[in-house]
Amino acid sequence: ECELPNRNLYEFAGTLKINSAAFPIPLGADQILLRGSQLKNTAWIYGIVIYSGHDTKLMMNSSSVPLKRTNVEQVTNKQILFLLIILIVLCLFSTIAGEVWSYRNKDTHWYLGYNLDEDRETWRHIGFTFLTFFILFNNLIPISLQITVDLVKFIQAYFINW
């Protein structure tokens, strides 16, 4: 008999009951080998597997590796997010200004083909105008910056291992 699986590596409580023995033999942390241990300078042993798989003490203590990001990546991501917010605000402002101009000049600039009488056409036009400005201003966000940072890291790792 032994304790239920737990995370404590340095404690173990159990008893070994042998039919011919009058009393059970107590087992402690000195009589246990954890997963991955190597036993040396011993001719032979008796062993019993207590827990296996995900119930082992080492597996219960292991955790997933956290995602490591450098300070440069964190600052770069924050600034790219800030630039995205600026881009959206700029596109909204430009869309509103463009729609105001279209509304004021739809009679004098008839050749542009603005038919803003129906609500559905108006919202479609506003959406297309926003997308147009988004495409025009998309160079505000440096997409190649992340690729360049990764390329520099790769080259530095190559030279460090050289």
Automatic annotation (TrEMBL):
The UniProt record lists the keyword Iron: no
InterPro entries in the record, alphabetically? ATPase_P-typ_TM_dom_sf
Q: Which cellular component terms (GO) are annotated to the entry? A: plasma membrane; trans-Golgi network
Its GO biological process terms? phospholipid translocation
Q: Which residues cross the membrane?
A: 80-103, 123-141
Arranged from A to Z, the UniProt key words for this protein are: Membrane, Transmembrane, Transmembrane helix
Gene Ontology MF annotations: ATPase-coupled intramembrane lipid transporter activity
The record's section on SUPFAM superfamilies has: Calcium ATPase, transmembrane domain M
| PANTHER family in the record | PHOSPHOLIPID-TRANSPORTING ATPASE, PROBABLE PHOSPHOLIPID-TRANSPORTING ATPASE
Q: What is this protein called?
A: Uncharacterized protein
- Annotated organism of origin: Adineta ricciae (Rotifer)
